[in-house]
């Protein structure tokens, strides 16, 4: 399994999969995709990198502990519930901000941040499980 | 919320919590001198409630409310009458001096800021209890006092004794709190109101209700646990593990009186019945005698005071239980006097402990020269406690003797109990105030000298208040005690209070008898102490020991149950789970005899058949696999086939997710397998294998039938139509699945991602536990596998 080819290709594959996962996450509102699926793709990416180059490399690449990633995701998701309260609407009523940047219509919304939160929770929680399982007692 | 009038009560309630937030910060910058600033909020609260006294003493009541849970008609409401105003004054007034005292007592302590914070949290909670009008408001604050009491008793959390006492207090008062909640909800059901003020106006509704008895029992349980009535009294002396400011404030002056408050509050609607006038005097009287008797044995000054507090609470409950206006007037006066003198005495004892290094009376003596101010304060307070003129305690005792005496010959036993209890309290007051100060100076662990002003301000002021209130008892009675008596007994009291008895009556002779008895006891205190110790040794067992036995029994039961249910064998877990699943699937079908048809309405297309065949090949590979990894990968094949089927039926999101989940579960399962010490071969015998195969087949059949049953029901499309119609127009999204997840049902998703997060943490913890020590065939890792 741990061949030279695999080890050489894995970082590129991981990068591509991560990019793809973000793409899947962002298109989710209108096309098949979303935070949960995107998160799972990102987890697979980290799992591949972990198998190829070792858990330590993944931890270095992530900088933060995966659980902190999950926690910040949860925080982001909960935070995106609140803005509507300031407009005296029920909690979690979606807020949209649409504008045009360089002739490209861009729509920012609280559901999008909520979905990013879901993505981060899934990535963080499952990556931390996978990584600790990959770690041998000797590591 | 306006800053004046009764609405401002909400601000007064909020103030302690704000102080709690700023306490640690102020203490970090000003050290112990922060107490001077922190004493301002309670003093302001005191003045605020003082401004209500003229109107409340005229019989006025105030009420203010804010919506809390409007959909359930729950309000956050406060209610001011004679009872709550006097309590609020005691809480804020004594609180002011306790804060100052804590500044001196914990000077230089690393966690003084935290202590202030807890103290203010308690103050806010206690104010909430006595001001609350709504039952739920009352209950929330009631529980908050239990929790803050737990935090304060366990403040010195490095000591085992502190932790045990804290948990004990929490368990006892927390259990009582549960009973109280049930009692209040039943009251709501019986009377139809959740507001105390409306309940009080409802007259006999509760007494005539069929729910009277359960309400009475539950309310009593709540009150008796909180106010340390026998047999729940044991937690209060143990709570003396807390720093002295806490003992002075929570465990004598305020919190433990919450139970008495509740009984007094409910008296107009629950009292004056045979059971009320039997149960309360019985438990109160026993508590009074047991408390004073146990107090006689102690040599630790703080414990002596703790037991007299238990006894005083017993006396208050007993008097409330008579339902006679005169006796309740006595109870009110005694409660007022007790808060003042007991708070002062606790602080004086704490000062002795702080400055001399011990509070065991056997190692103390002759401190009157070294600590003259503390001695004076302790003496003044003790004179009030002993019930001598011209102190408030004397008037209280006169009135309460008069109250029990006029009940008639049937209640003579109450008078007898009161005299006996008061005589013992007289002796104990003398012991606490005289023993450490008189006699020859003794070498103490620390060189004793007078404490700083922060330490003696509290005892001096509180003791002086007891004297002033005694001297001007007519006005004190008119302003504070009589409105409260009116609120409790429901009928106005007649006659002014006099310091000097207007005429010679029975109460005066009873007082003289009490004093004579008390002096005798004081002289023979060593004999009394020896007798009390001997009696208790003969009995041997007490509720305190019983509490430990109860907790141990709970732990043993829990671990036995766990060991029975959690055998650690994965095969057993699977068999149990599948058996239960089998019951869930088949019992409804058998019970309703509704067997769905298994004949498909249309045959699968060629493409679908191919994919189904792929799933079957995966299954065959699982069954014939030589080792576990092969089996897992083969199971993945079946899973992929299912994902493709989802795709064919127009659920790309679902199919997408299924692909990812299948992939990741194979990876994670493979990783878990490498960590388990599993045998390479299946160790089950052929009978077991046959049983498992049968179970699996039946469950599979059950699921097939259930799914077939679901698809044969007529389809209600209203929800999907709603989502299809509004997904774009309301939620700006074309992907309905995603819109449901992040918008329409976003709250569900919050719950789900929280579960994912917590599961991740748990699995992480389990893996860590396993890598630290590796017992053979560890069941924990199996659970980790099940979770992932």
What report would you give on this structure?
- The complex is a heterodimer of chains A (139) and B (788).
- Chain A is mainly α and 139 residues long.
- Chain A has one domain.
- Chain A is 68% helix and 9% strand.
- Chain A is built from six helices and two strands, in the order αααααββα.
- Chain A has helices at 4-27, 35-53, 55-62, 66-79, 83-86, 110-134, and strands at 96-101, 104-109.
- Chain A has a two-stranded antiparallel ribbon.
- In chain A, a hairpin with a 2-residue loop joins β1 (96-101) and β2.
- In chain A, α4 packs antiparallel against α6.
- The longest helix of chain A is centred in the last third of the chain and has 25 residues, at 110-134.
- The radius of gyration of chain A is 18 Å and the shape is elongated.
- By secondary structure, chain B is mainly alpha-helical.
- Chain B has a domain at 325-523.
- Helices cover 73% and strands 2% of the residues of chain B.
- Chain B is built from 34 helices and two strands.
- In chain B, strands 1-2 form a two-stranded antiparallel sheet.
- In chain B, β1 and β2 (74-80) form a beta hairpin.
- The longest helix of chain B has 32 residues, at 160-191.
- The radius of gyration of chain B is 34 Å and the shape is elongated.
- In chain B, 46% of the residues are buried.
- The A-B interface holds A 28-37, 40-41, 43-44, 47, 67, 70-71, 73-74, 77-78, 81, 92, 94, 96, 107, 109, 111-112, 114-115, 117-118, 121-122, 124-126, 128-130, 132-134, 137 and B 652-653, 656-657, 660-661, 663-664, 667-668, 671-672, 675, 731-735, 737-739, 741-743, 746-747, 749-750, 753-754, 756-757, 759-761, 763-764, 767-768, 771, 774, 788.
């Amino acid at each position: 399994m741990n061949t030279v080819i695999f080890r050489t290709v894995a970082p590129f594959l991981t990068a591509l999969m991560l990019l793809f996962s973000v793409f899947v996450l962002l298109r989710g509102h209108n096309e098949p995709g979303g935070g949960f699926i995107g998160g799972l793709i990102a987890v697979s990416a980290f799992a591949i990198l972990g198998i190829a180059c070792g858990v330590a490399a993944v931890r270095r690449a992530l900088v933060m502990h995966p659980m902190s990633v999950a926690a910040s995701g949860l925080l982001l998701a909960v935070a995106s519930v609140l803005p509507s309260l300031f407009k005296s609407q029920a909690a979690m009523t979606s807020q949209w901000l649409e504008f045009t940047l360089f002739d490209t219509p861009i729509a920012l919304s609280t559901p999008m941040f909520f979905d990013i939160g879901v993505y981060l929770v899934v990535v963080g929680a499952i990556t931390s499980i996978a990584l600790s399982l990959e770690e041998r007692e000797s590591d | 919320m306006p800053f004046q009038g009764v609405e401002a009560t909400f601000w007064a309630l909020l103030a302690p919590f704000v102080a709690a937030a700023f306490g640690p910060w102020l203490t970090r910058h000003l050290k112990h001198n922060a107490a001077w600033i922190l004493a301002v909020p309670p003093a302001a609260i005191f003045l605020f409630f003082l401004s209500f006294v003229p109107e409340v003493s005229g019989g006025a009541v105030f009420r203010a409310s804010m919506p809390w849970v409007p959909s359930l008609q729950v309000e956050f409401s406060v209610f001011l009458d004679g009872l709550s105003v006097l309590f609020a004054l005691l809480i804020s007034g004594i609180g002011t001096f306790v804060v100052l005292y804590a500044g001196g007592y914990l000077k230089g302590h690393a966690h003084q800021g935290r202590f202030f914070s807890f103290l203010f949290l308690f103050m806010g909670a206690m104010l909430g209890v006595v001001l609350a009008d709504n039952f739920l408001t009352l209950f929330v604050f009631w529980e908050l006092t239990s929790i803050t009491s737990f935090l304060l008793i366990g403040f010195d959390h490095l000591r085992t004794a502190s932790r045990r006492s804290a948990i004990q207090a929490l368990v006892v008062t927390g259990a009582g709190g549960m009973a109280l909640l049930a009692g209040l909800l039943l009251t709501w059901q019986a009377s139809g109101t959740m507001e105390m003020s409306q309940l009080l106006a409802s007259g006999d509704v509760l007494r005539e209700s069929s729910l009277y008895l359960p309400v009475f029992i539950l309310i009593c349980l709540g009150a008796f646990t909180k106010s340390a009535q026998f047999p729940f009294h044991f937690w209060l002396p143990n709570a003396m593990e807390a720093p002295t400011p806490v003992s002075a404030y929570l465990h004598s002056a305020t919190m433990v009186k919450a139970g008495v408050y509740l009984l007094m509050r409910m008296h107009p609607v629950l009292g004056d019945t045979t059971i009320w006038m039997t149960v309360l005097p019985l438990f109160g009287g026993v508590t009074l005698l047991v408390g004073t008797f146990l107090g006689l044995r102690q040599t630790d000054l703080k414990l002596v005071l703790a037991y007299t507090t238990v006894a005083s609470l017993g006396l208050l409950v007993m008097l409330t239980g008579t339902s006679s206006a005169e006796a309740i007037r006595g109870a009110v006066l005694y409660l007022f006097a007790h808060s003042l003198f007991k708070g002062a005495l606790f602080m004086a004892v704490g000062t002795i402990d702080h400055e001399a290094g011990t509070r065991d009376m056997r190692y103390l003596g002759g401190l009157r020269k070294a600590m003259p101010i503390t001695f004076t304060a302790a003496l003044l307070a003790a004179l009030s406690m002993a019930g001598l003129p011209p102190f408030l305690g004397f008037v209280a005792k006169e009135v309460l003797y008069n109250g029990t005496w006029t009940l008639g010959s049937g209640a003579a036993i109450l008078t007898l109990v009161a005299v006996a209890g008061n005589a013992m309290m007289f002796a104990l007051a003398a012991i606490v105030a005289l023993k450490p100060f008189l006699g020859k100076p003794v070498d103490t662990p620390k060189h004793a000298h007078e404490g700083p002003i922060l330490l003696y301000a509290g005892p001096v002021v509180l003791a002086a208040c007891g004297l002033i209130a005694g001297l001007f008892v007519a006005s004190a009675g008119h302003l504070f005690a009589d409105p409260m008596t009116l609120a409790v007994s429901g009928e106005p009291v007649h006659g002014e209070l006099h310091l000097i008895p207007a005429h010679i009556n029975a109460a005066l002779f009873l007082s003289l008898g009490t004093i004579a008895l008390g002096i005798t006891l004081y002289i023979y205190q060593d004999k009394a102490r020896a007798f009390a110790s001997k009696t208790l040794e003969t009995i041997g067992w007490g509720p305190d020991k019983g509490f430990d036995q109860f907790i141990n029994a709970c732990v043993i039961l829990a671990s036995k149950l766990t060991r029975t249910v959690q055998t650690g064998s994965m095969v057993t877990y699977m068999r149990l789970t599948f058996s239960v699943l089998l019951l869930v699937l088949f019992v409804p079908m058998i019970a309703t005899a509704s067997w769905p048809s298994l004949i498909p309405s249309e045959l699968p297309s060629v493409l679908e058949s191919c994919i189904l065949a792929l799933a079957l090949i995966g299954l065959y590979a699982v069954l014939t696999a030589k080792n576990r990894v092969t089996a897992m990968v083969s199971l993945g094949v079946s899973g992929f086939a299912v994902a493709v089927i989802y795709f064919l039926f127009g659920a790309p999101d679902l199919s997408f997710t299924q692909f990812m989940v299948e992939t990741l579960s194979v990876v994670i399962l493979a990783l878990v397998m490498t960590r388990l010490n599993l045998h390479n071969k299946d160790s089950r015998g052929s009978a077991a294998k046959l049983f498992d195969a049968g179970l699996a087949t039946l469950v599979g059949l059950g699921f097939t039938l259930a799914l077939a049953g679901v698809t044969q029901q007529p389809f209600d499309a209203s929800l999907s139509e709603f989502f299809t119609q509004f997904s774009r127009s309301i939620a700006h999204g074309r992907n309905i699945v995603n819109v449901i997840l992040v918008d329409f049902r976003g709250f569900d998703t919050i719950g789900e991602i929280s579960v994912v997060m917590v599961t991740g943490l748990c699995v992480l913890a389990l893996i860590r536990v396993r890598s630290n020590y590796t017992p053979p065939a560890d069941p924990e890792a199996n659970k980790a596998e099940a979770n992932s």
